[in-house]
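Please decode residue identities from the backbone states below.
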């Protein structure tokens, strides 16, 4: 049996042959800290997107129905410039479920999904790398 002598070279233009990590632009960390007790008040749950649709008249907003285990919640999120609604059902995301509801463009948003923004303004949803039940607590 021959051992692999090194990483396979790909001619794919999206492949990076070096091992440098992507880094966000230098942004100072917030000076204000919260206590562990305050952080534990945030209810983070695994949610599975069941439905996603554009909100009429809103270029950036999507209306999502998210299964959080024992309940389905409605979210309004500004991810429309990055995500097509058709690609979202089935995605397992992280959701804050205990925010005060907010009415946005006539839709009651009952939580918030977590996402990160790259240097070009594109959003990337915080997802899970393994199969975890909807409604599972994230800590």
């Amino acid at each position: 049996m021959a051992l692999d002598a090194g990483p396979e070279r790909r001619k794919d233009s999206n492949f990076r042959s070096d091992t440098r990590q992507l880094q966000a632009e230098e942004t100072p960390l917030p000076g204000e800290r919260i206590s562990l007790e305050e952080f534990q008040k945030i209810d983070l749950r695994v949610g599975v997107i069941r439905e996603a649709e554009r909100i009429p008249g809103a270029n950036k907003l999507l209306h999502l129905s998210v299964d959080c285990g024992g309940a389905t919640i409605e979210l309004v999120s500004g991810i429309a410039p990055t995500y097509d609604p058709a690609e979202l059902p089935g995605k397992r995301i992280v959701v804050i479920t205990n925010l005060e509801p907010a009415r946005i463009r006539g839709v009651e948003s009952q939580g918030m999904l977590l996402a990160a923004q790259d240097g070009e303004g594109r959003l990337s949803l915080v997802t899970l790398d393994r199969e975890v039940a909807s409604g599972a607590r994230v800590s």
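Observation: The helical segments are 36-39.
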